[in-house]
Amino acid sequence: MNSPDAVPATPEADPAGATPATATPAAATHPAAETQAGGPAAHPAAAAQPHHRADHRVDHQPGHRTGHPAVLPPADLRRRLADRLDPAARAWLDRALEEAAEHPGTHGPISVWELRLAEAGRRCGPDHADAARVLILDAARADADALTRVYSQGTAAERRAVLHALAHLVPGPDAVPLVEDALRTNDTRLVAAALGPYAARHLDPHAWRHAVLKCLFTGVPVDRITDLARRARGDGELARMLGDFAEERTAAGRSVPDDLYRVLTLASTDGPAPPTPAPDRPRAPHHSHADTPHPDDAPHVKET
Fold first, then answer.
1. Which range, 32-46, 248-262, 280-294, is most confident?
2. Could you give the CA distance from residue 197 to residue 38 in angstroms, rounded to a whole number?
3. Is the distance from CB of 202 to CB of 167 less than 8 angstroms?
4. pLDDT tens column, 121-159
5. pLDDT of residue 272
6. Could you give the CA distance from residue 113 to residue 111 in angstroms, rounded to a whole number?
7. Is 62 within 8 Å of 14 (Cβ atoms)?
8. 213-272 pLDDT, tens per residue?
9. Is residue 208's pLDDT more than 90?
């Protein structure tokens, strides 16, 4: 299939269900040392750490001009995309969606709609390719098996579209192994796509906490994590892990990501515990394409 689509950087925040962070002036009091109204102060281990900028961040996300493809309902996504495509691209997408609706599932070695997934970047442009692919997957009524096939055989761009489409197409936890697989990679755009609405609903607390840490040490802004405030609020175990991570980074002379303090404040604030989904499902197999973070970057924290 085609090589992954290039996506230009954009400073716009991703409306993936989380409230954008507000820039903090350098002279401002650090939020980790503040006390939330009605809640305790944040973890003392991190409160004592200096305020550093993150080592590296990913500040681009495809679909920013169309709307987030994992959040917008497909009908709304199609209307927005149609308004932004030129006539040739719009005609191509209309034909691709008709083909996918007429021939869903698998027909022969590869279905026609899978071929259209590979063309989407060239036909619709990199800003809109994710949205176009999500619409094609939706029109084809791709189930968990079909999505798994596309993910395992596709390019990074096609895998990203599969992750965006999960919230629209898979009602239960059957596709959680795809999310887990993406979270094992060092592809920051895959990691960001994996933490959309589907992961917010179905990723278990243990995996979700480690996904938050993965964002922190790979530079994925926590704004990419759907439902961050709800799931992090009052999570004492997450607060402990974040404090340990901050102490470890500081002891090693490495910077502590700014986003850590924001999440730590949420996790250290009194509130209801996050829900604990525990679906019975197989764990994701380890694939050769799934990278492991460098040991100097990965936090050595464990849950008790």
1. 248-262
2. 29
3. no
4. 999 999 999 999 999 999 999 999 999 999 999 999 999
5. 54
6. 5
7. no
8. 999 989 999 999 999 999 999 999 999 999 999 999 999 999 999 899 999 999 998 755
9. yes
Confidence of residue 110 (pLDDT cuts 50, 70, 90): confident
How does the average pLDDT of the chain come out, rounded?
76
Angle of the 74-84 helix axis to the 129-139 helix axis, nearest 10? 140
Q: CA dist 238 to 4, 66, 183, Å? A: 34, 34, 17
State the first-to-last Cα distance of the chain, in angstroms, to the nearest integer: 43
For the stretch 131-166, what's the b/e string if a residue is b when 16 or more beta carbons lie within 10 angstroms of its beta carbon?
Answer: bbbbbbbbbbebebebbbbbbeebbbbbbbbbbbbb
Check residues 276 and 35 and name the one with the higher pLDDT.
276
3-state secondary structure the chain: CCCCCCCCCCCCCCCCCCCCCCCCCCCCCCHHHCECCCCCECCHHHHCCCCCCCCCCCCCCCCCCCCCCCCCCHHHHHHHHHHHCCHHHHHHHHHHHHHHHHCCCCCCCCCHHHHHHHHHHHHHCCCCHHHHHHHHHHHCCCCHHHHHHHHHHCCHHHHHHHHHHHHHHCCCHHHHHHHHHHHCCCCHHHHHHHCCHHHHHHCCHHHHHHHHHHHHHHCCCHHHCCCHHHHHCCCHHHHHHHHHHHHHHHHCCCCCCHHHHHHHHHHCCCCCCCCCCCCCCCCCCCCCCCCCCCCCCCCCCCCC
Tokens found for residue 123: 């036909």
